[in-house]
Amino acid sequence: MQRPSESLRDYIKRYFANRNTSTEVDGRDVIYHFHQGLHSIELRRKMFENNPKTVSDMMAVVNKHADMEDAEHAHRRHKDRRDPHDRPRQRDDDSARPAGDRPPRHGKNRDRAESSKARERKRGPDNTIAITDRRVEERVVNIIFGGSSAASCKHSIKLHNRDVNSVFRHPVEPLRWSEIPITFDRRDDWVHLSRPGAYPLVVNPVILQIRLAKVLIDGGSVLNIIFAKTLEDMAFDMTKLVPSDQAFYGIIPSAGSTPVGKVTLPVTFGTRDSYHTESIIFEVALFETSYHAILGRPALAKFMAILNHTYLLLKMLAPNGVLSIHSDIQTSHSCEMENINTAETLERSSNQA
Predict the structure, then answer these.
(1) Which of 125, 147, 164, 348 could form a disulfide with 223 if both were Cys (CB 3.0 to 4.6 A apart)?
(2) Among 37-51, 98-112, 127-141, 261-275, which is the least confidently predicted range?
(3) Where is pLDDT greater, at 149 or 111?
(4) From residue 120, how far is each of 62, 131, 178 by CA, in Å?
(5) Where are the beta strands (DSSP E) in the chain?
(6) Angle at CA 328, nearest 5°, toward 322 and 333?
């Protein structure tokens, strides 16, 4: 049951944390009990209209509502911080002081300086408009960060800082899969690209003995993500997920996303004659994108893989030599267009709300 003062995002996290402790839970029961615990009449109505059949269908509706709720709360907090009536009156603000009690001012230069300060400290409409303009001009560059790889407490932060500060004090030991150099040259120019670097690097590894055709290689992501719908399509038992309460950021602007859990899965690149398999820890996300999964820096480091967006090529070592994994141009283009259409749809729905 959602608590009276509990946000929808916190309710989702608490509900699925409790659900992960139970075994053999039917998806219909999960949807029913989640629906009954909501205190938002509007969301309950939307769920009734959409009639979700699976947990992923339900979360597609719930996440949209949670995103709008997070955006509304963020806007309200920003508005409260910017509200001029809630700010304490500055000592030099003479607007509320009677004219006869104002101290004399001496010298033209002092008058000019004090007038400039007074103008900057005013809480009038002009300053409010300037603040609004600055907000419009803000730009955001998103990267995916957070998750279970981030420090979860002060002790972890201290350990991370200690590791960073001591990297040059220890002798360098050879890393696994580093005995053979990986290079790129003209022989890797396997396809003509009119706009090199314009398409994402999308590959098709085998995960849990199933080949996934749309896996994004993201060297800017600090974690690996697999989506709940992907696991359900793979007939994975969702009750085997390990609970995780570490939010990650960079997917939804100005808001964090809490995974339903994490799971370690075998990921294989290559063919039967030459392949490389590693166990990769994934954060399981409830929202959906055009990709089946995202492999970030942790996976690339474990495979000792090198990506090249110019050639749309991923290289790594295997027992029989260097593996070259080519991206699929048509798949990359279709995923990119689907992401653009999804972003435009979400923006229109947010503006209408």
Answers:
(1) 147
(2) 127-141
(3) 149
(4) 44, 12, 58
(5) 145-146, 202-203, 206-207, 210-211, 215-217, 225-227, 248-249, 261-270, 275-285, 293-295, 306-308, 313-318, 321-326
(6) 145
Helix 41-50 × helix 55-82 angle, to 10°: 150
- State how far the Cα of 238 lies from the Cα of 257, in Å rounded to an integer: 18
**Secondary structure (3-state) at 320:** coil
- Reported as a single tens digit per residue, the pLDDT across 135-150 is 434 444 454 555 555 5
Contact 302, 268 (CB under 8 A): no
Beta carbons of 320 and 273 less than 8 angstroms apart: yes
Task: Identify the structural domains of the chain with CATH numbers, from first to last.
Answer: 8-82 (no CATH), 176-352 (2.40.70.10)
What is the pairing mode between strands 293-295 and 225-227?
Answer: antiparallel
Name the residue type at position 283: E
Given a contact cutoff of 8 angstroms between Cβ atoms, the answer to whether 231 and 285 are in contact is no
Mean pLDDT of the 91-110 span: 51
The alpha carbon torsion through 307, 311, 316, 317 (nearest 10 deg) reads -150
Which residue is listed with tokens 């800017």?
Answer: 220
Residue for token pair 């949209």: 64
Pairing state of beta strands 275-285 and 225-227? parallel
pLDDT, tens digit, for every residue of 298-326? Answer: 999 999 999 998 889 999 999 888 999 99
The phi and psi torsions of 323 (rounded to 5 degrees) equal -90, 140
Q: Where are the alpha helices (DSSP H) in the chain?
A: 8-20, 27-37, 41-50, 55-82, 108-121, 125-137, 154-165, 228-233, 297-303, 329-352
pLDDT at residue 302, rounded to an integer: 93
pLDDT of 182 strictly over 70 = yes
C-alpha distances in angstroms, 56 versus 227, 262, 316, 346? 9, 16, 34, 18
| Other Cβ atoms within 10 Å of 276 Cβ, number | 21
- pLDDT attached to residue 235: 94
Give how far the C-alpha of residue 273 lies from the chain's centroid of Cα atoms, to the nearest Å: 37
The residue whose two tokens read 């990650």 is 248
Tell me which DSSP letter residue 103 carries.
P
Closest CA to 59 of 33, 81, 31: 31
